[in-house]
Design a protein that fits this description.
Layout lengths: L1 H12 L6 E6 L4 E7 L2 H4 L6 H13 L8 E6 L3 H10 L3 E6 L24 E3 L4 H18 L6
Parallel strand pairs: 3-4, 4-5
Antiparallel strand pairs: 1-2, 1-3
Length: 152
């Protein structure tokens, strides 16, 4: 999660929402891929940290199936990312902060609980949640202050 937090900090430094993701092989502890949020800079609405990491891992491994790998992400995945995680056959998802507005794992559609979901990873939430949450809150507070909007 610390590596994902560093990726989130890099995203924030680029003006992107601070979300970072890492894909790890749990048997060897090898880091397969790292992703940082990048929709603004890449002009790609799908460039969420999870998608960036999934694409890099698939390219590196030469396979779109990432079975048994672990995805670590600083924020609860949205519906798009949950769908991609399921299609990739990720074995486990570990996330930091919950996302009551945009999350789709423990909030919203609870994607992996739907009968139409073909692959359900093991999910663990709340890992370094406070650090992830504070980074997001600070980022958006600074943006509102910069734009002259309400700070809280």
């Amino acid at each position: 999660m610390r590596i994902a937090l560093r990726a989130a900090q890099a995203a924030a430094a680029n003006g992107e929402t601070p979300v970072g993701a890492v894909i790890v092989d749990p048997t060897t502890q090898e880091i397969i891929a790292v992703g940082a949020n990048g929709p603004i800079g890449s002009h790609d609405p799908t460039a969420h940290a999870e998608i960036v990491a999934l694409r890099e891992a698939a390219r590196k491994l030469g396979n779109y199936r990432l079975t048994d790998l672990t995805l670590v992400v600083t924020l609860e995945p949205c519906a798009m990312c949950a769908g991609a995680i399921s299609h990739a056959r990720i074995g486990r998802v570990v996330f930091g902060a919950e996302d009551p507005k945009g999350g789709a794992v423990v909030h919203g559609p609870k994607f992996f609980e739907q009968p139409t979901c073909h692959w359900r990873p093991e999910v663990t939430g709340g890992i370094l949640a406070e650090e992830s949450s504070v980074m997001l809150k600070d980022f958006f507070r600074a943006r509102r202050k910069k734009k002259g909007g309400p700070v809280e």
